[in-house]
Design a protein that fits this description.
heterodimer; A: MetI-like fold; B: 322 residues; mainly alpha; MetI-like fold; 17 helices
Chain lengths: 290, 322
């Protein structure tokens, strides 16, 4: 196939543009990392741009010694684990009946659920509800009000609907109850969608900060994102970090901020290469049947 | 019991059960679905308690809610809170900020993933394409706090952006202290975070286009540009319209968390949107009823926008959400 000059010019420009996009996307994250492992003086002089200067892990050692960061890290892991488990159980229990044509009332319940995508009570009534349920300042305020994401539920339901009908029929002939069908047939066939949904929910919990900000008031319960916000966005330093950065001239406030950003995104960056294809599949499934 | 299981599988034997009428039929089908109901109980309670109860909580927008009297006992005030909000000069600032951010979002951030998808579609080299995709999805997984933290630090007086600008002799700019920069910062960061992830849905639509259409276009002598214009774009038009409808539906729901993190006293003039105002009046100043009224106003206007966009789309393109 012959290619015209215009076509080749376009291809080259396209590749250059996309490489530029890759650079713009990746560089800020890379920059944060190299600053976090560079010497404080070099950072202050503005010498760090493409590779670490005076490479050291000092900042990370200091950050890990800060008890409030360690505790918030533990809290985030706890909230993410419990929250994701609740999400998966509730979403499955919702998606499974709705995927079955013979579920009497299916149309009504689907409508009732989809309606909540377009209209909600809003911030204040939801806040008052959580308050009146006695969930203030507990983990439950973070994991229960968002137990089912309608969008994720629809993706899961669509996936369940594509499981061949005959499998259920033969199970029913063998006398299997609906619960047995769910556990023995649906779940084993749904590993990809479960992994995707689990990851969607887990990343959501890991990254969430607003519910924690309005529902938690005890510092010992704060998740990592709240500590991160206080340090990196508001520019507050915990007294210990301040003391430390005073003692070690090689560590500046910027070093500490960037190191905390890195430890907050590290788990996501580490698992990202393995899970991204699942994510893409998840979005695709959702896009086929809205 | 086995009888019910058979019916459940849709293998109703002819003549096994004559169609009954009225409540007996309803009861029979409910009984048949009893296991589904047992499973559905928890999700049902979830939606009732956490979605529908707050909807009824909206009545405090028409009351003067106070903690001691509770929702039921607080005195009614009718539309007083709405009148106060609509007659407040600040109302116009909030509406302008909210709508301008969304409009810029639709003009600049909405087409970005479409363009990226079209460009990626022209790449023949599979590995390169996959590499670009993998990198471009990454920012989607960063938390709002991290992105806001990056913006605050990169945009500060001695931050990365000013270091870069100083190479060209530009004086340092305190980006987040200047109201005129807020929308630019917000929209750019939305593009940075969303361009790759947003392109997935269009790439999926692109892969669904019948390759025979391209063959036919080639035979008719269409070059790459005309193939893109006459085959590719029409092929993904329904997806574009659906996504545009969602954006229009979200016109009043600016990504509130990011605005909250990036706004400060110096940029309030352009950064304060309805959602942050609701948060501040409601949860910071505990003015629950007034904030609920403002929130309700916002939801109703949003629903109106969505319904209108959906109606227009159904009328002119036969694509709609409902």
């Amino acid at each position: 196939m012959k290619t015209s000059l215009g076509s080749r010019v376009f291809d080259t420009a396209n590749v250059i543009f996309l490489l530029g996009l890759v650079f713009v996307t990746f560089y800020p994250i890379y920059y944060i990392f190299i600053v976090s492992v560079s010497g404080g003086n070099a950072v202050m002089r503005g010498d760090v741009s493409f590779w670490p200067v005076d490479f050291n892990w000092q900042t990370y050692l200091l950050v890990f010694e800060d008890p409030s960061i360690g505790r918030s890290y533990f809290n985030t892991i706890l909230y993410t684990t419990v929250g994701t488990a609740i999400n998966l159980i509730c979403t499955t229990l919702c998606a499974y009946p709705l995927s079955k044509r013979d579920f009497y009332g299916r149309g009504f319940f689907t409508l009732m659920i989809v309606f909540t995508m377009f209209f909600s009570g809003g911030l204040i009534p939801s806040y008052l509800l959580v308050q009146s349920l006695g969930m203030m300042n507990t983990m439950w305020a973070l994991v229960i009000p968002g137990a089912i994401s309608v969008w994720n539920m629809i993706i899961m339901r669509t996936f369940f609907q594509n499981i061949p009908h005959e499998l259920y029929e033969s199970a029913a002939l063998d006398g299997a109850s609906e619960f047995t069908s769910l556990v023995r047939i649906t779940l084993p066939l749904s590993k990809p969608v479960m992994a995707t949904m689990g990851m969607f929910y887990a990343v959501g919990h890991w990254n969430s900060f607003f519910p924690a900000m309005i529902y938690l008031d005890e510092k010992a319960k704060f998740p990592l994102q709240i500590i991160l916000r206080n340090m990196v966005v508001m520019g507050e330093m915990s007294s210990q970090s301040q003391e430390i950065s005073g003692v070690f001239a090689s560590v500046t406030a910027t070093n500490i901020k960037y190191a905390v950003i890195i430890i907050a995104v590290a788990p996501i960056l580490l698992i990202y290469p393995f899970i991204q294809k699942y994510f893409v599949k998840g979005v695709m499934v959702g896009s086929l049947k809205g | 019991m086995p009888e019910a299981s058979l019916d459940r599988g849709g293998l109703q034997r002819p003549g096994a059960k004559a169609p009954q009428s009225g409540w007996r039929e309803v009861w029979r089908r409910l009984k048949q679905s009893r296991y589904y109901y047992a499973m559905f109980l928890i999700p049902f309670l979830f939606f009732v308690i956490f979605c529908y109860v707050p909807m009824f909580g909206i009545i405090i927008a028409f009351k003067n809610y106070n903690v001691f009297d509770g929702i039921a006992g607080s005195p009614w005030v009718g539309l007083q809170h709405f009148k106060n909000f609509l007659s407040d000069p600040y109302f116009f600032v909030l509406i302008r900020n909210t709508i301008l951010i969304s409009v810029y979002q639709i003009i600049f951030a909405f087409p970005a993933p479409i363009i990226l998808a079209l460009l990626l579609n022209e790449i023949r080299h599979v590995l390169f394409k996959r590499f670009v995709q993998t990198v471009s999805y990454l920012p989607h997984f960063l938390s709002t706090v991290v992105v806001a933290g990056m913006i605050v630090n990169f945009g500060s007086f001695d931050g990365l952006i000013n270091q870069f600008l100083s190479v060209f002799g530009v004086e340092p700019i305190q980006f987040l202290m200047m109201p005129e920069w807020f929308r630019t910062i917000y929209i750019s960061s939305e593009i940075w975070q969303g361009i790759g992830w947003g392109s997935i849905i269009y790439l999926a639509a692109l892969s669904g286009i019948d390759s025979q259409l391209y063959e036919a276009a080639k035979i008719d002598g269409a070059g790459r540009w005309r193939q893109m214009w006459h085959v590719t774009l029409p092929g993904i038009a329904p997806t574009i319209i659906i996504m545009l409808l969602f954006s229009i539906g979200a016109i009043m729901a600016v990504s509130f968390e990011k605005v909250l993190l990036l706004s400060n006293g110096s940029n309030f003039e352009t950064s304060d949107v309805i959602a942050t105002y609701v948060y501040r009046r409601g949860l910071v100043s505990s003015d629950f009823s007034y904030a609920t009224a403002v929130g309700l106003f916002n939801s109703v206007v949003a629903l109106f926008f969505l319904a209108t966009a959906n109606y227009l789309s159904r009328k002119f393109s036969e694509t709609s959400l409902w």
